[in-house]
Amino acid sequence: MAESSGAVPKYLRIAGHLRELIERGELAPGDEVPSERELAARWKVARPTAAKALDALRQEGIVRSRQGSGTYVTERSALMRERAPRYEARSAAAAESVTVLVTEVVEGPQEVTDALGLSAASAVSIRKLLCAGTSGPAMLITCWFPGVNTEAADRSDSVPGGASEYLEVAIRRATAMVRESVGARLATHDERRHLELAGPAAVLVVHRVALDARGVALEYREIVHPPGSGTIRQEYFTSSAADFRR
Q1: What is the number of other CB atoms lying within 10 angstroms of the CB of residue 95?
Q2: How far is it, in rounded angstroms, from Cα 73 to Cα 18?
Q3: Pick from 6, 106, 147, 212: CA 20 to 30 A from residue 67's CA?
Q4: How far is the C-alpha of 209 from the C-alpha of 175, rounded, in Å?
Q5: What is the pLDDT of residue 25?
């Protein structure tokens, strides 16, 4: 029997839990992470499942193994390399309602095919969601998948991450890295209609590419937030504290 909970494999849940501990600082750089045996006992899974979870973190560069010693959290500079800047905005998971607006296969716009590493005008699957909270529309999420992954876009569930998790299970490739860019622009007519904006307005736009461990794009996502919904936060290391005294 497959060791999974719902659509998410157990090894991804274990890897995600360890990743959260590291990001919160509960496991600091240089700390040893639980062994395969400890994870297997704690999560009640077979050791190969625990090994797969640790391997997923190794592929992300979050942990490193030392022969004959154990597995350890990498230096913080390596952890931060793909994490700055970050944006803060209302979470899709916290939305009171999620409506699926579009699920279809289309000819991919150049921006999308470039992000997914496809040739121009390749077929892609699109999935558009509208997330709303108690005060009204909160964000528009548009996901594009390579054309061969059309089943993900056709998912009938309205959970923002459901299609992505389904895709990872279907093709047996997990997201190992996420690249994000954040910017602002005027809302399009379609965005103004869905986000209930009365007139021309600037929106916060996040573009996100999910890549597997080999650097192959699995998904391209655009998240559009209405005015006042998010801020930019940066966190990074300097080469030397002395730089500030010059």
Answers
A1: 22
A2: 10
A3: 212
A4: 10
A5: 79
**Quick one: which of 154, 119, 124, 148 has its CA closest to 221?**
124
In this structure, what token pair is assigned to residue 147?
């054309």
Distance (Å, rounded) from C-alpha 177 to C-alpha 172?
A: 15
Task: Provide the b/e sequence for 112-148 (b: ≥16 CB within 10 Å).
Answer: bbebbebeeeeebbbbbbbbbeeeebbbbbbbbbbbe
How far is the C-alpha of 24 from the C-alpha of 124, rounded, in Å?
36
Q: What is the pLDDT of residue 165?
A: 57
- DSSP H helices, the chain, are 10-23, 36-43, 47-60, 76-80, 110-116, 150-153, 162-171, 189-194
Side-chain half-sphere CA neighbours of 118 within 13 A: 24
User: In which region does residue 196 sit, left (phi positive, over 0), alpha (psi from -120 to 50) or beta (all else)?
Assistant: left
Sign of the C-alpha dihedral computed for residues 102, 106, 111 and 114 taken in this order? positive
Spatial CA neighbour of 93 closest among 182, 156, 159, 155: 159
Contacts of 65 (CB under 8 A, 6+ apart): 54, 58, 71, 72
Q: How many C-beta atoms surround the C-beta of residue 50 within 10 A? A: 25
The series of mean pLDDT values per 10 residues for the chain, 246 residues long, is 52 86 83 94 93 87 85 66 49 69 90 92 90 88 77 51 54 71 92 94 91 81 86 50 40
